Amino acid sequence: MTPPTPPTPPPTPLTPRAVFERLSAGISAGRWHELADLYAEDAVVEQPFALPPAPPRLEGRATIAEHFRRAAAGPLHLRARDVVVHETDDPEVIVAEFDYDGRVAATGHEFRVSNVQVLRVRGGRIVESRDYHDHRGLARAMTTAS
What we know:
Blueprint lengths: L15 H13 L3 H4 L3 E8 L10 E3 L1 H13 L2 E12 L5 E12 L5 E13 L2 E9 L1 H11 L1
Parallel strand pairs: 1-6
Antiparallel strand pairs: 1-2, 3-4, 4-5, 5-6
């Protein structure tokens, strides 16, 4: 008689750095439809520099998914560059500094904006994020592109 096969252990959750790398790669590749899966069901995203009509706070994966759907339909193509990820004393938290090289699809106008994200990742999903994106720089790029 063959001994029973032991159960396969569950996969190890992604580290905060690995989750950020997937988020950044997904944005850079325009895979917006995949990004909400990186967030916990009850995740909260704070965007302190958001300009109306963008909300300063997104609550829940469904709201975050809608945010990414709108981004996918928008005219911007973004590619992360010069990424520096800082580990913290809290194993759930990282701070990422990076630039986006951007292009407005309709006009070809190119620009660069700076960003900082503070992510808390638990169980391989983002539970909290504070996104300090240069929303004024993005708005200027859109205005310049017109």
